[in-house]
Design goal:
This protein has 2 domains: about 5-75, no CATH class; about 75-170, no CATH class. It has no helices and 8 strands. The chain has strands at about 5-10, 15-20, 50-55, 70-75, 80-90, 115-125, 140, 145. The strands form 4 sheets. The protein has a two-stranded antiparallel ribbon with strand order 1-2. Strands 3-4 form a two-stranded antiparallel ribbon. The chain has a two-stranded antiparallel sheet with strand order 5-6. It is found in: Membrane. It is a single-pass type I membrane protein. Its main location: membrane. Keywords: Glycoprotein, Integrin, Membrane.
């Protein structure tokens, strides 16, 4: 029959040990199959595998068959990333020809302000680090300035690399 095991975690010689009692007394020559499901946290920096040492011990008498078996389980972190974006204003009709005021440092003399906001969200289940987002924005159309890239800002501990031509006229 199937039974639930009683397992207790503890530390032993600096290692985390889970001790499971399989039964007492057992008949000589008994064969038992055990399926274990382990929940392990903090695997973000473990690499691509985790290793367990399994050992069957008897309390009755010391035996040479008390050898350990090493089991290596591959670890794969999974995270669902979501990119959200907004433009303010949501829609914009740009004039066919924009005549900027030469030498002016006022924003309104260089075009209509459009702000794009992007958010990267981790929907889990794992944590993530080292994310790279490549964002391409057309700044010219037909040899004319379409969008003048003024500034790039971040929040939440992110860093960005400024694209070439960012605020080229120091507006």
């Amino acid at each position: 029959g199937q039974e639930k095991l009683s397992c207790n975690p503890r530390k032993e010689n600096g290692s985390h040990v889970v001790l499971c009692e399989l039964g007492n007394p057992m008949k000589a020559g008994a064969q038992i199959t055990v399926d274990m499901e382990l929940s392990v946290s903090g695997l973000e920096d473990m690499g691509d595998a985790i290793t367990f040492q399994l050992q069957l011990r008897s309390k009755n008498s010391p035996s040479s068959t008390n050898t350990s078996v090493t089991v290596t389980v591959p670890v794969e972190a999974q995270a669902v990333m979501e990119l959200r974006g907004n433009s303010l204003p949501a829609t914009m009709v740009l004039p066919m020809r924009w005549h900027k005021v030469e030498g002016s440092r006022r924003l309104e003399d260089h075009g209509i302000k459009v702000e794009h906001v992007y958010q990267v969200h981790n929907k889990g289940p794992s944590t993530v680090s080292g994310i790279t987002l490549h964002l391409t924005i057309p700044s010219q159309l037909g040899g004319h300035i379409l969008l003048y890239l003024l500034e790039l800002g971040t929040e939440g501990g992110m860093s960005c690399t400024n694209p070439p031509g960012l605020n080229a006229e120091q507006v």
